[in-house]
Every structure is written in structure tokens, then in C-alpha cells.
Amino acid sequence: MLEEEDNEDEYSASACEIMQRRSSSRRQSRRKRRPSSPFSIEAESMLRRRSSVYTISSGEYISRIKCRMEYLCRTAISMEESGSQEQIFEKLKLHKEVLSGVKQQPWPLRRKIKLVRQAKSYVRRHEGVLQERLAQTRSTKDAIARVSLFATKKWQYFRREIVNLQTWLIPWEFRIKEIESHFGSAVASYFIFLRWLFWINLVMAIILVAFVAIPEVLTADVTAAGERKIMLEEEKIKSKHLLTLWEFEGILKYSPFFYGWYTNQDSQSGYRLPLAYFVTNLVVYIYSFLAILRKMAENSRLSKLSEKEDECAFSWRLFTGWDFMIGNPETAHNRTANLVLGFKEALLEEAEKEKDERK
């Protein structure tokens, strides 16, 4: 019994800290008030209320307000079973706010896990009971609460499905995740790089086809191009053979695949093919340069922490060396052997550095 009360007190105190932190962040974004104040609007209004007869010190008054705030939080986040529908509904909202705000708290992981379990147990216990009560009643207020609860659930489900759809629409995402689970993130990064190269080449191909190849096919004068576009009679005999096509001869030789097929004259419709050819290739080079530059900037931001590996080599290897995306026992064994080998190499390098310093 005493242990349950201690757990409830600890949970109430933790929830109170979360609510105060969330209220202080909201006040900083909405109103220009003291950033150091940990209290809500009601608490600050209480701080301003002074008796016309009695005066007390500021420290004593603030301690009283803190006790009052803690009492309100304990009452609002109580884990008791009793309460009306409105109280249960408000408590569910508070517990869900606790679940969403526990990640930002600078607490030990064990305390966070314990707090999340307690909040989830309350939500799991009372959400179904509240739905049953709301289904049995027919008042307007209960109907609004029932609709609000249903809309909240559907919205959460919709957001989760949208995230899953976004992941599903990324090409080869599940295959790369499967490779990552068997061989680690280092091997998966190679395929992620290949996918990035594929998108770069696809965009460049679309630009070239849209502004150079298609206008050349539709508007270019074949007779003015001469032997660039007209196949010789002796070449027509074997132009469609498999061996000829394999060597990119025959009909493929007189196709948009090769630079020599394009003319250096403007089309009859007014489309300037030589200028379009030059400008399009210039745009392609600029786009590829900017894409590579942007990727390098993103990677440089991510690799800022890796610059400190030389300062604490053993600590970095010990605390950040394991790949938690591995899901295969054989891969985990290989990763362990790799880490052991890395430690041995680091020890040898450290010993060599000490020898060089002594010399």
C-alpha cells in the first residue's frame, strides 16, 4: 500500500513538472513575460494577489504557490478509479500530454519508462470505460465528447497511415531496411547512395529528353541533316539483327542516343535546337553540381560529431560503436568481432604513439 502511494506521488510530481514546463514554453511563445517563471497563468495571477492587511516575504509566498501548484497537479493527475465522465475525460487528456512531453524531460531513462507505463496503463484502463459510458448516455455534452474522442482516434490512425504510406512510396525502402537489418547501416548506406544517384540521373534524363530529344524528333528536318539521320542501304540489311543492336549499330546508331544524330540548324517551327542543346546541357551540369554540393553540406552537418572521435577514441568506440539496426545473429556476431578488432587496432596505435612521444 505504501509502495503504491509512493509510486502515485512520484508520478504526480513528474507529471506536475511536465505540465509546468509545457505551460512555461507556451507562455514564452504567446506572451512577453518572465522566461524564468515556472508557473501557469493562474499561478502568476495568484502571485499578484496580495492581502491588504498582511504582508509576507516573497520567498515564503513563492513556496506557498509551489505547494498549491503541486496540490493541483496531484489532484488532476490522480490515478484513482472514481470520478465523473468529465473528470475522466480531462484526466485522459492530461495523461496523454504527459506521454507526449516525457521525451523532452532531462530525466534518467528508467524514470521515463516508469512514467510512460503508468500513463499508458491509466489511458488503457479508462478509455474503453469512458467510451462505454458515453455510448449509454444521450445528452448533448456527452455526444460532443464522444465525437471528439472518436475524431481524435481517427486522426491519430490517419497520421500513422500517412507516415506508413510515405515510407512505402520511397523506392526500395523496404529492401534497404532488410539489408540494413542483416548487414548493418554501413552496407545499407551504399545502396542509399545508389538510390540518390538514380534520382539525380533520372532528373537529368527528363530534362534532356524534354528539351532536346523530343523537339529534335518532332521538328528537325531529316533531309537537311543528310547522312546523320539517313541510313545507308547496305546498313539496312543488318540494322535490326540482335548482334548489331547489341553493339549499338544499325537503327540505334541513327537515334537520339548519340550526339551526332542532332542537327545544328533551327527547326521550321522556330525552336532553336542548337541553343536549346547548349542551354539544356548547361542546366544539367549546374543542377548536378548544386545537388552534389547540397548533399555534401548535409553530410558535413551530420559528421560534425565524428570530428571528436580522435579526442576520445575508446569512449566513442565503446558507447557508439554498436549498430542497433542489426537484427540477424550472424551479423551481430560479425559486428562484435569487428568491434573487438577495432579495439585491438586502437590499442596498437596508442602504443605506437606513446613510443614515438618517448623517442
UniProtKB/TrEMBL annotation:
<feature type="compositionally biased region" description="Acidic residues">
    <location>
        <begin position="1"/>
        <end position="11"/>
    </location>
</feature>
<feature type="transmembrane region" description="Helical">
    <location>
        <begin position="196"/>
        <end position="220"/>
    </location>
</feature>
<feature type="region of interest" description="Disordered">
    <location>
        <begin position="1"/>
        <end position="40"/>
    </location>
</feature>
<feature type="compositionally biased region" description="Basic residues">
    <location>
        <begin position="23"/>
        <end position="35"/>
    </location>
</feature>
<keyword id="KW-1133">Transmembrane helix</keyword>
<dbReference type="InterPro" id="IPR038900">
    <property type="entry name" value="TMC"/>
</dbReference>
<dbReference type="GO" id="GO:0005886">
    <property type="term" value="C:plasma membrane"/>
</dbReference>
<feature type="transmembrane region" description="Helical">
    <location>
        <begin position="274"/>
        <end position="293"/>
    </location>
</feature>
<protein>
    <submittedName>
        <fullName>Transmembrane channel protein</fullName>
    </submittedName>
</protein>
<keyword id="KW-0812">Transmembrane</keyword>
<dbReference type="GO" id="GO:0008381">
    <property type="term" value="F:mechanosensitive monoatomic ion channel activity"/>
</dbReference>
<keyword id="KW-0472">Membrane</keyword>
